[in-house]
Structure formats: C-alpha cells, structure tokens
Design brief:
The chain is an alpha/beta fold and 211 residues long. The chain has helices at 16-27, 42-47, 49-72, 85-97, 103-117, 133-143, 153-169, 189-203, and strands at 5-10, 30-32, 78-81, 125-130, 175-179. Helix 3 (49-72) runs antiparallel to helix 4 (85-97). The chain is globular.
C-alpha cells in the first residue's frame, strides 16, 4: 500500500482518539491528535463565547492546517484525530447558529477557511464515526473532562444534523462510516481487526504494515 493520509471525523465522545491510537499502532502509521490542553484561547472562550469564538476558530484553523501539512509531508502513512473540515462545517457553523459567532465574523472565517483548505492535499479516506446521542452523553459523563461539563444532548443532536448535511456533499475522498456503539474496537481485538480490514478495503489495497 502506498502512502495514505486518513482523517477521522465524528461527534464529541464518539471514539476518534481511541480509534486513531489503535489504528496507528496496529498499522504502524503516524498519528496526529487535536490540540486542547495547550490552546491559549480556550479559557477565555468558555468564559465569554461571543467575544472569543472567532479567535478560537482561527487558532484551531491555523493549528490544524500546520499539523495536516507537517504530517502530509512525511513519507509514512498517517491517521489524524479530527479533520480540518469539521472546524468550519460543524463547529463554526454551530457557534454561528447559536449566536456566539456573528454573521460578519462567520463569513470572514469561512473565506479564510476556504483559502487555507484549497492549499491542502486531499485525504485518501475519511472515517466517520457515529453513535446515538445517549451513548455519546454517557461517554462524556464517564470521562468527566472539565471543559465538557456544559455539553448537552441538544447540542450533540445539533452537531449530528450538521454532520449529516456536511457528509451529503463531501466528495474529496471516499467515506467509511463506522457505528461505534455496535463495534467495540477499544476492548475487543476482533472488532479492531474488523475495522482495520474495512479501512484497508476502502483504501483499495492489500494491508501492509509500516514501520
């Protein structure tokens, strides 16, 4: 299998990081993860979303574009936890919908986003992880992250509708949809092998371990 670039997408709590870690280890691929702990805007954003939403989204866009390019320029295949496309089509859209990102800032952000992503190579595969909102809520509650305490079922449902809208028109690469409530790749090795096989088949090549 030639070098591949895979991005993992999906709602909060759906299992993106867990899948990225395990597929990276299983296939010997490079991994990239979402930056949260070192994001300088998050504290201000959670204190005043209307003031800091634009700043936060621009930071995420710059960080994720650099991460994407750095990994795309490596000679090895790689898998990324969350895609850069979700920044605009899911989360910035949600901030705008909820009144935390003004129309002016939203349009300015979208113009910048389009300029940035048009200069990036397309991924070879988008893995979309999906699970019911009640399952997501339980996982979020179980992991008890401080920054996630305000997440509601209504918000997750809104994001789900935005994911559905986005994926209807996404055509940059093939999409592999995996229901994570039915396939426990974290605790069951056979389930991870099933996911690995589906990824390999979707990429259109025989599995080759890379080290």
């Amino acid at each position: 299998m030639t070098k591949k670039l895979i991005v993992v997408a999906g709602n909060i709590g759906v299992g993106k990081t867990s899948l990225t870690e395990r597929i990276g280890a299983r296939m010997g691929w490079l991994t990239g993860f979402e930056s949260v702990s070192d994001n300088p805007y998050l504290p201000d954003f959670y204190a005043d979303m209307k003031t800091w939403s634009f700043h936060l989204q621009v930071y995420f866009l710059g960080h994720r574009a650099k991460q994407y390019l750095d990994i795309a320029n490596q000679p090895r295949s790689a898998i990324l936890d969350r895609s850069i496309y979700e920044d605009a089509f899911i989360f910035a859209r949600a901030l705008h919908h909820l009144g935390n990102l003004s129309e002016r800032d939203y349009m300015a952000y979208r113009r910048l986003f389009e300029l940035v992503v048009n200069g990036l190579p397309a991924p070879n595969l988008l893995i979309y992880l999906k699970a019911p909102v009640d399952v997501l809520m339980k996982r979020i509650q179980d992991r008890a992250r401080g920054i996630e305490t305000g997440i509601s079922a209504e918000y997750l449902t809104l994001l789900d509708t935005f994911y559905d809208d986005w994926l209807k028109s996404f055509d940059l690469c093939p999409i592999l949809t995996i229901r994570t409530d039915n396939l426990d790749f974290v605790n069951k090795p056979k389930a991870l092998e099933t996911v690995t096989q589906r990824i390999t088949e979707k990429l259109g090549g025989k599995e080759v371990m890379e080290f």
